[in-house]
Amino acid sequence: MNIVNEINRLKKSRNAVIIAHNYQIPEIQDIADFVGDSLGLSQMAAKTEAEVIVFCGVHFMAETASIISPDKRVLIPDTDAGCSLADTINAAQLIKWKEENPGAVVVSYINTTAEVKAETDYCCTSSNAVKVVESIPLDKKILFLPDKFLGNYVKTVTGRDIVLWNGFCHVHEKIGELELDEAKKKYPEADVLIHPECGCSSSCMLKSVVYSDCKNLKIFSTEGMMTYTKESASDEFLIATEVGILHRLKKENPAKSFYPASENSVCEYMKMITMEKLYNSLLNDEFEVKVPEGIAAKARISIERMLSVS
Ligand code: 13P
Ligand code: SF4
Fold first, then answer.
1. What is the CATH number of the domain that holds 245?
2. In total, how many domains does the chain have?
3. Residues lining ligand 1, Cβ inside 6 A
């Protein structure tokens, strides 16, 4: 059996669309109809005319697609594909935090469960977090969750009254200043592109503003990295995020060179989606991700607010 042909055949017969995050394995990226970051994937889910969305990513992303498109069937090829960052806060913890901070506006990074989104005022992703916070009235205190590094970055850029949840991603947290300095020594000419979930993001951003030797350092979402590298005149880039994105970076920019800040930045949850599981998902109509309408209706408001400012 040629698995690529079979997946394409099933996709057609089921009127399905395959969407994949930038961290997916190369084979999955190559067979997907659309590859992107969390924001791009949620926008894609909102506008597709396909009846079935097969989401090659992690569970909260498939939940987001189900919230936005309740009439579509959303499938994830492996239900164990979770997210350590989303797991750092649940709805009960958020309700308690809100009670301790009456009147504060809640901004949640998209890496959260549907239940947490239902308790959220504004959702955001790494590509629009600053814009979302800037759209909130100046006199409002903001509770930002769950990622403390992204939150600190947004707090520094906007200068707003933001209280941070102490959450982080186990992959990005390890890309700290020391790791980055080592990599920079190896590739002194490369532009340095950093995902805001990285442990070094806040300090690196401050440095890039204050010290002139860090002018070639930029903070981007995964899709922001794709756009920047395409348009940039530089031909060497040091990439501080999950290594899965290197496949697309190299494929779409064959004349340029890309180096990972750390070869060990691998998200085991993202890598749980394989071609075999994708095939089984289409063949057996598994595994549906369906957010109950009571929760979805509340969560949708926070996502729609985000999409209206993006
Ligand atoms: P992006 O929205 O930048 O793709 O990031 C999602 C994510 O999970 C990063 O670890
Ligand atoms: Fe979650 Fe981190 Fe994996 Fe992104 S890289 S999906 S934040 S565990």
1. 3.40.50.10800
2. 3
3. 22, 37-38, 111, 125-126, 169, 197, 221-222, 242
Query: Alpha-carbon distance 250 to 47, whole Å?
Result: 28
The residue among 172, 177, 193, 182 whose CA lies nearest residue 236 is 193
- What's the pLDDT score for residue 269? 98
Q: How far is the CA of 249 from the centre of ligand 1 (A)?
A: 15
The Cα-based distances of 221 to 5, 101, 182, 225, 284 in angstroms read 32, 29, 22, 6, 34
Summarize pLDDT for 183-213 with one digit per residue, the tens.
889 999 999 999 989 988 777 766 665 444 5
Question: Are 177 and 253 in the same domain?
Answer: yes
Query: Residue 207's pLDDT is what?
Result: 66
267 lines ligand 2 (CB under 6 A): yes
Q: Which residue out of 76, 84, 242 has the highest number of ligand 2 atoms within 8 Å of its CB and is therefore the one to mutate?
A: 84
Distance 302 CA to ligand 1 centre (A): 18
To test the ligand 2 pocket, which listed residue (171, 195, 271) has its Cβ within 8 A of the most ligand atoms? 171
Q: Answer yes or no: is the C-beta of 242 below 6 A from any ligand 2 atom.
A: yes
Closest-lying ligand to the alpha carbon of 173?
Answer: 2
Claim to verify: residue 256 and residue 196 sit in the same structural domain: yes
Per-residue confidence (pLDDT) for residue 38, from 0 to 100: 87
φ, ψ of residue 35 to 5 degrees: the values are: -120, 135
Reported pTM? 0.95
Residue-averaged pLDDT of the chain:
94
Are 13 and 67 within one domain? yes
Instruction: Pinpoint the alpha helices (H) of 69-135.
Output: 91-100, 114-118, 129-134
Which residues, including other chains, have CB under 8 Å from residue 2's CB and lie 6 or more apart?
A: none
Task: Look at residue 206 and give its three-state secondary structure.
Answer: helix
Nearest-CA residue for ligand 2 atom 2 is: 169
Is the C-alpha dihedral spanning 64, 69, 70, 71 positive or negative? negative
